[in-house]
Design goal:
17 helices; two-stranded parallel ribbon; two-stranded antiparallel sheet; 46% helix; mainly alpha; 4% strand; 493 residues
């Protein structure tokens, strides 16, 4: 985790702007009406309905800053510096305690802590476990706040580097990199942050949109079904077949690397419940108690203010290791190197299972009794998590974890972009039908004046053009009448 020194300056400036809004809160503390605002930002799902999170709540501009805002401002600072850091990285750093978040109040100096009111101490303490989508929603609200009050507009996401990082983390073929960027260009998605407004779609969040496009491209070129698809040439993308069963096995082992050998796993201590205690082994209990002592026990304060307990009683429950050894410190750089080695091993294991598809040209396809399925055909749309096959569910969960989102959130965003693709297809078909009618009328005029007839190339009626993903060999998506699924078929060059 090597971050530039400029990030600290940027985040401090963002905090200074944020604290300016609290001046009005102090000046008008007696006026309760100014403490609340109905102008809140809410999410819109696939059908254009407001999400269940829409409720009247205190305006963030007038409310006390929360602990999670520190993570949101760090992310905004990284975006201002165009760093290729994802929300998932920030989420992982927080729950693994690479950056202060869990009980951040313990990092406040004792002299300052003794003089802070209880309200501020509670604000610096962890009230709930950091969950998926929490940072994303906080960033969304903060970007709207800074744009509305200070006219601060964040630059577009540094999506080329982030896209490469996501493809590598998911151990996917690199030909998806170009396909995702072409699809984004086609849909005019520039990965910019939305500005102030009462509503926004989940897919308007740049990182969610980027991951959604990657999921759609995977479903086009490497679907999760068992249908045999054949490219026309080796130059087409998607000529390799991913063994999704093997991918799921390798990914499962990669995710369990922190708990290998019976370890509790760094970051999992805060998730332990009273029921889990009875199932922990000796080493896991030691890990949990070490974390609990480091996080919750203030031995210095207990010695100075024993609250009436005699020192003899406190000595009966000593802290630390029985043999007097100290807890091992965590080397973040060493942990990062181990993660890189594990990722390289995952890449090698998955890429070793890739196999090429059989090439069948259009000329050879004429000799086949049945129609040859092309790359991108029989595109499947999934509306709910229950509709996902086991392998697709594992992939969506892993992809969602990379952006610290729920798999249901990712499914909604994918559905929103798929609906955008369908609207594009409808507009494209309308333009195509208008141009074809003009060509037909021109052809009739020419045939009446010239001595030779004019023959037009007719496209098959079942093909409906949607968009191109490759140069020279266009990919054509087809839509069923009910628009429940999209099929893709390719034209000859």
């Amino acid at each position: 985790m090597h971050l530039p020194a400029e990030l600290e300056v940027v985040v401090k400036d963002l905090w200074s702007l944020r604290l300016r809004l609290l001046q009005s809160r102090v000046d008008t503390s007696t006026d309760e009406g100014t403490m609340f605002s109905s102008q809140v930002t809410s999410e819109v799902d696939t059908d254009g309905q407001q999400s269940e999170g829409r409720r009247e709540r205190p305006s963030r501009s007038k409310a006390m800053p929360s602990l999670i805002e520190s993570l949101g401002l760090c992310y905004i600072g990284m975006m201002l510096l165009k760093l290729p850091i994802s929300i998932g990285d920030l989420h992982r750093w927080a729950y693994k305690e690479h950056i202060p978040y869990v009980r951040a109040v313990r990092y406040v100096p004792r002299a300052m802590k003794d003089r802070l009111p209880a309200t501020y101490l509670v604000a610096l303490d962890t009230q709930a476990i950091l969950k998926a989508d929490d940072i994303r929603k906080t960033v969304q609200e903060l970007t709207v706040l800074y744009n509305h009050h200070f006219q601060v507009t964040l630059p577009a996401l540094n999506h080329p580097l982030l896209l490469f990082k996501h493809i590598r983390d998911l151990a996917l073929p690199l030909d998806l990199f170009v396909a995702v960027r072409r699809l984004a260009k086609l849909l005019h998605i520039d990965f910019s942050f939305p500005r102030a407004g009462p509503y926004y779609k989940i897919s308007s969040t740049p990182e969610v949109a980027l991951m959604s496009l990657l999921v759609i491209t995977v479903k086009l070129y490497h679907p999760f079904d068992s249908i045999d698809r054949h490219p026309r040439s080796l130059t087409e993308p998607g000529t390799l077949v991913i063994d999704w069963n093997r991918w799921s096995e390798v990914q499962k082992g990669y995710d369990a690397r922190d708990t290998a050998g019976g370890k509790l796993g760094r970051g999992n201590e805060i998730k332990v419940t009273e029921t889990d205690i009875f199932n922990l082994c000796g080493d896991q209990i030691d890990e949990y108690l070490d974390w609990f002592e480091k996080t919750w026990v203030d031995e210095e304060r207990a010695r100075k203010q024993p609250r009436g307990y005699p020192s003899q009683l406190l000595d009966m429950f000593p802290t630390g290791k029985p043999d007097g050894s100290t807890r091992p410190t965590v080397d973040i750089e060493q942990e990062r190197l181990k993660d890189e080695e594990a990722l390289d091993a995952k890449l090698q294991a998955i890429q070793a299972t890739l196999r090429p598809r059989q090439i069948i040209s259009d000329k050879d396809a004429k000799f086949h009794e049945e129609a040859v399925a092309r790359i991108g055909s029989f595109y499947q749309r999934y509306k709910k998590a229950e509709d996902l096959p086991a392998t697709a569910k594992a992939f969506h969960e892993t992809a969602a974890s990379l952006i610290a989102a729920k798999s249901s959130t990712l499914l909604i965003a994918v559905a929103q972009i798929e609906r955008k693709l369908i609207r594009w297809k409808e507009e494209h078909d309308k333009e195509g039908s208008d141009s074809e009618s003009e060509e037909e009328s021109a052809a009739e005029e020419i045939s009446e004046t010239e001595e030779f007839p004019m023959h037009q190339h007719e496209e098959p009626e079942e093909e409906q053009r949607l968009y191109d993903l490759s140069d020279g060999d266009p990919t054509i998506l087809q839509a069923d009448s009910d628009l429940d699924s999209i099929h893709a078929q390719e034209d000859s060059p």
